[in-house]
Amino acid sequence: MQKSYGAREILKGIDLTVNTGEVVVIMGPSGSGKSTLLRMINHLEPLDWGEITVGGQHVGYQRMPGGSVRPVRKRLAQARAAARIGMVFQHFNLFEHLTALENVIEAPLMVYRQKPDQARAAAARLLNAVGLARPADHLPHRLSGGQQQRVAIARALAVAPRVMLFDEPTSALDPELVGEVLTVIRGLARPA
Q1: Nearest to 74 by CA among 54, 60, 58
Q2: Percent with pLDDT over 70 in the chain
């Protein structure tokens, strides 16, 4: 796959296959295209050439006669939802006006139409799993950076993702908070 912004080529000739259960780390200097690649996988950024599939299905693209792919505009939200890609952003991207619990249940309720009681119970389990059972009713500004990142992880897990993407999940954290977030991420990578 390839991606450019104007004349500036960001990604060229990327060919990557990740198998179920596999953990892959993409390393490189700042500005090398790591975040762009993750955003393209989640179809938050269009690709210029190539294709991305999850479980053999295109995410937000459809194959055309002749082999090319083109973006699907009308059903893009449905395609993203069907792909079940969880993404944890570098700067958390929590909804500031929603509590930790409300942040976690937003997608299950609004996108996947889960019953509110089911979504709340699942969110409570996820928040407990990342060590945030007590501050579930706090707004993000009342949480530490590490707690906010753990809410973001629980929110990504709430959609039962087939693919989990982390965009520099510890870069916005104080050094003492890095360890607690990495512990949560390591726990996710272990087979159940």
Answers
A1: 60
A2: 98
Name which of 105, 99, 154 is nearest 127 in CA terms: 154
Distance of CA 99 to the CA centre of its chain: 19
Tokens standing for 68?
């090319």
Distance CA 173, CA 21 (A): 27
Burial 15-30 (b: 16+ CB within 10 A, else e): eeeeeeeeeeeeeeee
Q: How many Å apart are CA 72 and CA 46, to the nearest integer?
A: 11
Spatial contact of 103 and 140, defined as CB atoms under 8 Å apart: yes
Give me 73's structure tokens.
């505009």
pLDDT in tens, 12-63: 989 989 888 888 889 999 888 999 999 988 888 888 888 888 888 887 788 8
Q: At what angle do helices 145-157 and 116-129 cross, to 10 degrees?
A: 130
First-to-last C-alpha distance (Å) of the chain: 33
Helix (H) or strand (E) holding 147: helix 145-157
| Backbone CA torsion sign across 161, 165, 171, 172 | negative
Q: Within 13 A of 110's CA, how many CA atoms are on the CB side?
A: 8
Residue 106 predicted with pLDDT over 90? yes
> What is the arithmetic mean of pLDDT over 141-160?
90
Beta carbons of 165 and 42 less than 8 angstroms apart: yes
